[in-house]
Write a structure and sequence with these properties.
Blueprint (H helix, E strand, L loop, with lengths): L1 E2 L13 E6 L2 E6 L5 E3 L2 E2 L3 H5 L4 E2 L12 H16 L4 H16 L8 H18 L6 H8 L3 H14 L9 H9 L19 H17 L8 H16 L1 H4 L4 H8 L7 H16 L19 H6 L1 H9 L1 H13 L3 H6 L1 H17 L9 H4 L12 H4 L19 H12 L2
Antiparallel strand pairs: 1-2, 2-3, 3-4, 5-6
């Protein structure tokens, strides 16, 4: 260490300046306050060494910024979550990159600590959805001990701010994932022996009932978990009806170790109605007085002839309505003359509908039992500006094309009281 020439420190004004060898590089330092007036030059990469480029020490690899404890703890949380879920290493790398991007985004700088802890789980959930890996939001929330509502809000924020494309999980994959969490597939001390069921048999029959619910408009616009839970209960009862018909829906969910969503009872009631309608079309079941318990014994037969029974249960009356509609649309002059006769034909048709057990077209439940309409708000200025004559882009034109079958179905829905 040696004294420098006649210079003064710009920080404290002292003239006690020394040259200090730091990492074999000369630096000019103030002995009074420690201010570095000049520093040596270092090379930072092999490429720069080859081209003989030199950089200051403060810009070199020696001053590489370390990750904060919060970021390190978050990355470790994401990695541990991926290991618990047994995800591939590619999923882990993608989830970590999404987590680092989210922490650098300004929208997540001032959020609460509780939401920041959920960021890692949201990134893992997004990664699994993008790779078509069946993972439900409930599974992530149970592992993180988080509320589903809070997790859903953070997930939507991550998807929006990072502009991530997340495909929707198919209903069948969701059903398989939800059934894998049931505790009915292995013997345990708290599970009665008649309640234990083979997993493959139960999954297969549950998938068939879910397909039936999808074909009868019970899935559209509804949360899928209550439907899957109700279908699992019916399939479980139908596999051994003698020992399981006395078990209630609530007890089934408690023994299986899953939550009972409030709408599940309504979905179960709707499935019972569909099964009873199908059972009324089977010749060997008409002699029995079928109810919601006895029909469960014949679910296997009903699912085996599902397509035929649905056509017989819901389409028999449609043919009569089509013939009546074709006669009404025959000629404009005859429509006025036949007006009184048409009104007289409505009453016999309603009486026949009641005699046939309320046979109806296959329509969504919202059209069969519509809810009371809420009072609509006054239209805004932007709504009034829409005239309906706006041009339709090529990417949206396919959404407005309708085939002949769809047009007829729409006419039937509008004519149904």
């Amino acid at each position: 260490m040696m004294a420098a020439g006649a210079r003064s420190c710009p920080a404290c004004g002292s003239s006690a300046l020394v040259e200090d060898a730091h990492y074999a590089q000369q630096q000019l330092v103030c002995a009074a306050c420690g201010c570095v007036l000049a520093e040596g030059l270092l090379t930072t990469t092999y490429a720069e060494e080859e081209h003989l480029r030199e950089v200051a020490y403060s810009q070199s690899t020696g001053q590489k910024e370390q990750l904060s404890r919060c970021v390190q703890r978050g990355i470790k949380r994401v990695q541990d979550l991926c290991k618990v879920l047994q995800l591939p290493s590619v999923f882990e790398e993608t989830a970590v990159s999404y987590f680092q991007r989210a922490l650098q985004h300004p929208s997540f700088h001032l959020v609460s600590l509780e939401k920041k802890e959920l960021l890692g789980g949201c990134c893992v959930f997004v990664t699994c959805r993008q790779h078509n890996w069946p993972l439900t939001m409930g599974t992530i929330c149970s592992l993180l001990y988080a509320k589903k509502e809070l997790f859903a809000s953070v997930y939507l924020s991550v998807q929006k701010e990072l502009e991530l494309s997340v495909p929707a999980l198919s209903l069948m994959d969701l059903a398989k994932t939800h059934l894998s969490s049931f505790r009915l597939f292995q013997r345990a001390a708290d599970i009665p022996a008649p309640f234990v069921e083979d997993k493959e048999k139960m999954v297969t029959r549950t998938m068939q009932i879910v397909e039936l619910a999808s074909e009868t408009w019970l899935v559209t616009g509804r949360h899928p978990v209550p439907i899957v839970t109700a279908a699992a209960f019916l399939s479980w009862q139908s596999l051994q009806p003698a020992a399981r018909l006395t078990c209630t829906f609530t007890r089934f969910c408690r023994v299986a170790g899953v939550d009972l969503p409030p709408p599940a009872h309504l979905r179960l009631k709707e499935l019972h109605e569909i099964l009873l309608r199908m059972a009324s079309q089977l010749a060997w079941l008409r002699v029995f007085n079928m109810d919601k318990k006895t029909v469960i014994k014949h679910i296997g037969d009903l699912l085996q002839h599902r397509i035929f029974l649905l056509k017989k249960s819901f389409c028999a009356e449609d043919a009569e309505e089509q013939r009546a509609g074709a006669q009404g649309e025959g000629s404009p002059g005859s429509s006025l003359a036949a007006g009184g006769a048409a009104q007289e034909e409505v009453r016999p048709l309603e009486g026949k509908r009641q005699r046939d057990g309320g046979r109806r077209p296959l329509l969504p439940p919202c059209l069969i039992k519509p809810r009371k309409r809420l009072r609509t708000a006054a239209p805004s200025a932007s709504d009034l500006a829409i005239t309906g004559d706006e041009p339709i882009s090529d990417s949206e034109i396919e959404q407005y094309l309708r085939g002949q079958e769809e047009i007829q179905a729409f006419r039937k829905a509008k004519a149904w009281p």
